[in-house]
Known about the structure:
disordered N terminus
Amino acid sequence: MTGDPVTAVRWALAERDDGRAQVCPLDARGRPAGPVRTEESAVAAVRSRPGVGRWVWRASASLHPRLLEAGVGVERCYDVETAEALLLGHEGRAGDPRSLPAAWARLHGLPVPQDLPAASRGAEAEPSLFDAAPAPLPDGVDPMTALLEVYAAQLERTEAAEHPERMRLLLAGESAGTLVAVEMGRAGVPWRADVHRELLEELLGERYGGGGVPKRLAELEEEISAAFGPGARVRPDLPADVLRAFARAGLKLSSTRAWELRRVDHPAVEPLLRYKKLYRLWTAHGWSWLRSWVRDGRFRAEYVPGGAASGRWTTNGGGALQIPKVVRRAVVADPGWRLVVADAGQMEPRVLAAVSRDPGLMAVAGSGEDLYTLLSQRAFGGDRAQAKLALLGAIYGQTSGDGLRNLAALRRRFPRAIAYVDEAARAGEEGRLVRTHLGRTCPPAGAASEEDGGGTGPEAEGAWEGGGETPPAPPPAGSGASASAGAARARGRFTRNFVVQGSAADWAVLMLASLRQELAGSAAELVFFQHDEVIVHCPAEDAERVAAAIVEAGERAGRAAFGDTPVRFAFSTAVVECYADAK
């Protein structure tokens, strides 16, 4: 490193087509502070510069796995492609290509290449000759020159943001999230395949029980068909078939959702509900899933930070963010190790209190007591269930019927909080840009990710108890003014929720960044993250220290994201050997 400025704590790294890497020190403003040097590989470049505080590179998802494989760690990074996506959204161009070649082409007024789709593969899959490589730069364009030009432009765009200091924090948090995602995927969730197979046999019976389905599903299929009368043959895995069967019985249903089935008095309902649960287990976490995704005692998913429209994470296959309770029996710590499971309860109402600065709601969210109980005592005569339904209804846009009456009660008690989500809804209906507190911008109408869910309110399965996102229902059928008005209302319901759930996603990446720093240098591994829940796998003797670090990370993220408020973002923690014992 002779001749390299010892004061430079930020370096740029660009990879060439021949596998070699270019590196360049940067000054405090992100400008080159020394010559560009060439190393034999990115791994060699990073390994020889252990004192670098932040690496500026194209994308962590392609580079960080190779660093980890070589035993090379990094403190922080700036992920150019992640930053590009956030800045495009902030500028009202969400969904435009985010790759380095695309960003460089936009700078130079050239045709912008489309992003290449990510390929999903199971844990056992080997790299394919036909796997898509990162989109290339045009012939003759120097990778380091392109990286530095795009990075400099991004710094300028950040300063032009509505709140530059907040946008800088969001970009730093999201970049840290890209490191965490790769590290969690490499560490993997401890998974006992033998326990998983035992529970499948216990719940589903023999794997091949007839008709191509496990024995218990085949039995339930017969029971469901018999409930509709002699000679009836119903395929419970086909919703249209189930709806026709109920129609023949004089019962008209709009869907086969569990909440709608439970309203029906018919002997097929009970076995049908059991079938739905077991069928989901079989298809989502059955024998095929186990063979594809669990290897060497670990479930390794490919996490996608910010993959949902709200900024929540998704996965590229594997369903890591939807591990059902029954399957959690297979998540078991290694001998002598423990799982520290932490859950940040009642997150969305706490975020609403912090971003709206409503004095009354901040007092409720800062007491350390159950938020819904306190809310019920102040506005709903002690009825906790009604208080929860009311507050979440205000966030999710339930503004008719009981929801309207509840909203009126909340508006009297917490006017600033309700005004905050009302304004977000109004902005969405009018087609304006809607942003979180840190500056994450809601995608335009029709651009929401499928992973955002599909429910429409408190009755949507898992919407409020399991953490699933609940954007608005599709706009009503029709044409002209009526369809346009319906689409606008749907957009408003989405943006009403976005400002809260998106701000919660902002908090989450800052929490992950803080926790990652706290765990650095220890044996503890962050192995799981889902919206407001984390799991750390660590030696038993470190478990209490890890639990304290998680709690502190949550509070620190709250202060960083929302400033000095009385709102508490506390985790409840459990130290267990088996994930199923945590709740």
